[in-house]
Design a protein that fits this description.
Blueprint (H helix, E strand, L loop, with lengths): L9 E2 L2 H15 L3 E8 H9 L14 E8 L5 E4 L2 E4 L10 E7 L4 E8 L22 H12 L3 E2 H11 L14 E5 L7 H13 L3 E5 L5 H7 L4 E3 L7 H8 L5 E4 L7 H17 L3 E3 L2 H8 L10 E3 L3 H12 L9 H11 L4 E4 L4 E4 L4 E4 L11 H20 L8 H24 L12 H9 L1
Parallel strand pairs: 9-10, 9-12, 10-11, 12-13, 13-14, 14-15
Antiparallel strand pairs: 1-7, 2-3, 3-6, 4-5, 5-8, 6-7, 15-16, 16-17
Family: Belongs to the NnrD/CARKD family.
EC number: 4.2.1.93
Cofactor: Mg(2+)
Length: 451
């Protein structure tokens, strides 16, 4: 019998798809549930409000896109009590299917399909939800253990975090704790690359390089003698200059103070491609995300990439990759996971009142206390610290003992640290707090959280 559900399969209506899908699930003994969807009425209504003139979805499609997940799938959430699953009976199965409507062709198409389950499937396997967890503390604990399989509590999370951080010993030599590069800095923006680079040093990197334009270099150098500043971003032989330094870097942060000069962005595109060829991990923020939104193929499926969008940047990237803007205040965790999957399982760190991190397999949230101030520069501290943690987490993942993916773990560590720094800075400075007020708190915050 020819397979009816596969990547690239097309259907003229949702009714046709649903009939085939039900028969497929019955025949293969898989149970999928709809996790995320957008109906065509809502999608067409949004289209009518924009001047882009996109065609409407055909009525028979019913949905603009649908994300199905295994009934035993689930996300994790972090809080003061560690990482835990949001629904106790779920086991985190990664089997899923993504179906998307095509405006032009008027069809539904299966864009992604994962059928590798982390649990048995078959006619004798049941998918009964766990019993409701009662208020009795001991019974609640027992039921959670029975129904959720494995959870990651605060103690285990702290152990994972501490195992990532390299110990300070007399045997180390300069550079072993991290050589971080920052691409950014132009005439208008000199503070952002400084904040990112100095944070990398304060978190624990040994060397921090800034690759900026010629006009920005003297200003950035004047901020700190600890930074190594290269005025090559707008150099006529910029790529040749970068080739001298890329082999020495452990991680490259792209975007703080980058600007949007077309020639500079063209150079950065080539640098990103060179980093991919060398396997250099990337953290992309700010105007680097503008470049990725314009040319997502630069990083799609390069899993050693972390994108750190704010709410607006996330919406633009989601629209580019999915075809619709995410619904406001509705299941941001599922949206983040979907975007990570559609970009080839790189890591997305969506900044907000709750920071959401996903590599397409795992989703965790960092919701510890921060501050109500939204002054510029805090995201640059986050990108710099992420660059350091990402290097450390990737080295730890190489030994095969990590439970969380390196991108997810590094993103969580960076969010946790910068939130604590901002909380302390706001306590001291209140409404007058600015980004530079966070830097003196990095050391003590790091020790209190991670040591």
């Amino acid at each position: 019998m020819a397979e009816t559900i596969y990547i690239g399969a097309m259907f003229k209506s949702f009714f046709d798809f649903n009939q085939v899908f039900k028969e497929y699930c019955k025949r293969t003994h898989q149970v999928f549930v709809m996790q995320k969807s957008v109906k065509i009425q809502n999608a067409n209504r949004k289209t009518a409000q924009t001047p882009l003139g996109k065609p409407h979805y055909a009525e028979q499609l019913v949905y603009a896109y649908i994300l199905f997940g295994c009934v035993r799938g689930g996300i994790h959430k972090s809080s003061s009590k560690g990482i835990r699953k949001t629904t106790s009976h779920k086991s985190g199965c990664e089997a899923m299917m993504y179906v998307r409507g095509d405006r032009e062709k008027g069809i539904l198409e299966i864009r992604k399909l994962v059928t590798d389950h982390n649990h048995p499937t078959g006619p004798d396997v049941t998918y009964r939800k766990a019993d409701r967890i009662r208020k009795n503390p001991q019974k609640k604990k027992d039921q959670a253990q029975q129904s959720s399989g494995r959870t990651v509590g605060v103690t285990e999370l702290q152990t994972m975090v501490k195992s990532v951080i390299p110990p300070l010993t007399n045997d180390l030599h300069k550079g072993q704790a991290g050589r971080i590069g920052i691409i950014g800095g132009c005439q208008e923006y000199t503070g952002a690359p400084y904040f990112s680079a100095i944070t990398a040093l304060k978190v624990g990197a040994d060397l921090s390089h800034v690759f900026c334009t010629k006009e920005a270099a003297p200003v950035i150098k004047s901020y700190s003698p600890e930074l190594i500043v290269h005025p090559i971003l707008d150099h006529v032989n910029a790529l040749a200059e970068f080739e001298k330094w890329l082999p020495r870097l452990h991680t490259l942060v792209v975007g703080p103070g980058l600007g949007r000069d077309p020639e500079v962005l063209k150079t950065v595109s080539s640098v990103i491609q060179n980093c991919k060829a060398r396997g250099i991990p990337l953290v992309i923020d700010a105007d680097g995300l503008f470049l990725i939104t314009e040319s997502p193929e630069l990083v799609v499926s390069y899993t050693n990439t972390m994108l750190t969008p704010n709410v607006v940047e996330f919406q633009r990237l989601f629209d580019k990759m999915i075809g619709e803007r995410p619904a406001q205040n509705q299941d941001l965790a599922a949206d983040t996971k979907l975007l990570a999957q559609c970009m080839g399982n790189l890591t997305i760190l969506q900044k907000g009142s709750e920071d959401i991190i996903s590599d397409g397999n795992t989703v965790i949230m960092c919701s510890t206390d921060g501050c109500p101030r939204r002054c510029g520069g805090q995201g640059d501290l986050l990108s710099g610290s992420t660059g350091v943690f990402y290097n450390w987490a990737l080295k730890k993942s190489a030994d095969g003992t990590a439970i969380l993916g390196p991108g997810v773990l590094a993103g969580y560590m960076a969010c946790r640290l910068i939130r604590e720094c901002s909380r302390r800075a706001f306590t001291s400075n209140g409404r007058s707090m600015v980004a530079s007020d966070l830097i003196p708190h990095i050391h003590q915050s790091f020790d209190d959280i991670f040591v």
